Amino acid sequence: MNKKRTILLSFVAILFFLAGCSKELEPNKEKFSARGVSYEMQLPGGWKADEVSNSNYGIQTIFSAEDSKSNSYLFITTTPVAEVEQDGFGEQTRKKLQERYKYKNLEDVYMKELKVGDAPAYKYTLNTVYKEKSVWAHFYYIWTKDSFVQMTFYSADDNAYEKRSEKIDASVATFREVSFDEKEAESAQESEEKSEGDIVTIENDELKMETTAVRRITGAQGENLLAIRYSFTNLSGEPVQPSIWADLVTAKQNGEPLSIGTLPEDTSLLDVKELAATQIETVQKNETVESVVLYELLDDSTVELNFSQEAFPEQKAIGVVVPK
Questions:
Q1: CA distances from 99 to 54, 96, 109, 245, 266 (A)
Q2: Which of 93, 146, 209, 292 is at a distance of 20 to 30 A from 233, taking alpha carbons?
Q3: Are the C-beta atoms of residues 288 and 233 closer than 8 Å to each other?
Q4: Taking the model in full, what pTM does it have?
Q5: Are strands 224-234 and 37-44 parallel, antiparallel or unpaired?
Q6: What angle do CA 203, 206, 211 make, to 5 degrees?
C-alpha cells in the first residue's frame, strides 16, 4: 500500500512539473513586422500581445505585450541593422545605462553577451521605476540579418521576479527574423522620411548635431511642445553634454523666441523621457548619443532654427514644419 502511494505521489509530482514547464511559454508564435522585415516569437506563459502596439514606449514601437497579473510589460522597437555598430557596443551601452539610471557602480548594471538563435545579442538588467512602481528592466539588443532589435521588458519587482526572468529569457530565445521584403522596406523608409521631415546637420571642429525626427507632444502644463530628436557627436578632446544645443541654437515662431519646455513627471512617453535624460550625459571624444530638445509652441506656424554664427559661421536659419 505504501509503495502504491509513493508511486502515485511521484506521478502527481511529475504532472505538476510538466504543467509548470508547459506554462513557461505561450504555445502560439506571435508574428509582427516593420520596415519590410517579419519576425516571430513565443511570449512568456500568461502574457498577451496588445491588439494595437502600445506607443507608451515610443512611436517606433512595433510590438507590445503585457502580463496583466503581475503588471509586467514588453516593448519592441527596430532600426535598420546598418545603423548600429556592434564593435564596442557592449561596454559603451552599459556605461550609458549606468549614467541614465544613476547607478553608482558600473558592475551593478548586469550585462551578458549571448546569441539569440544565430544572432549576436546583449542583455542588460537593472532596477528602475515604471508607472510609479519598482520594476526590473531587462534590455535585449539583437542584430538580425536585416534589423537591430531592442526588446524592453519591465518585470514587476515581486516574489515571482526570478521565475519570471527565466520565462523572459526563454521567450527571447524563440525570437527570429523570418523574412525580408525589399519593396516594403523602401516604402516604409519613404514614409518615415516624410513624417520625420528633412534632416538638419550642423557641424564644426568640436561637435556634430543632426536632427533625426520631430514630434508634437504635451508639456508639463498641458502646453504644446515641439520635440526635436537629434544625434550628438563630440569631436573635441573635452567632455561635453548634449544640452549645449540650447546655447548654440535658438528657435523662433514669427520672430518670437521659444522657451525650452518640460515633460510632465508622469509622462507615458518613455522614449522622449529617456532621450531627455541624455541632455546631461557626459559625452567623450568621438562618442555619439541620441537626445531631444523640447520647445514650447506659440501656434502651429513653422519653427525657425537660428544657429550661433560664432560656432557655425554662415550657417543659415532653417524652418521646421510643426507636425499636426
A1: 27, 5, 10, 20, 21
A2: 146
A3: yes
A4: 0.68
A5: unpaired
A6: 35
All residues at 6 or more sequence positions from 59 whose CB lies less than 8 Å from its CB, including other chains: 215, 271
109: Cβ contacts below 8 Å, ≥ 6 apart: 94, 97, 98, 101, 103, 124, 125, 126
C-alpha cell at 45: 506563459
CA distances from 171 to 5, 23, 261 (A): 37, 11, 39
Residue reference for cell 532589435: 149
Q: How many beta carbons lie within 10 A of that of residue 303, not counting itself?
A: 21
Q: How far apart are alpha carbons 301 and 280 in whole angstroms? A: 30
The list of the chain residues with pLDDT below 50 reads 3-22
Per-residue pLDDT tens over the stretch 285-314: 988 888 999 999 999 999 999 999 999 998
**Biggest alpha carbon–alpha carbon distance for the chain:** 96
Which residues pair with residue 156 across a beta bridge? 135
Measured CA to CA, the distance from residue 64 to residue 51 in angstroms comes to 9
Task: For Cα atoms 137, 130, 67, give the angle at the middle one, nearest 5 degrees.
Answer: 70
Grid cell digits, residue 229:
530628436
CA dist 26 and 44 (Å) reads 6
Reported as a single tens digit per residue, the pLDDT across 125-160 is 999 988 778 999 999 999 999 999 999 999 999 999
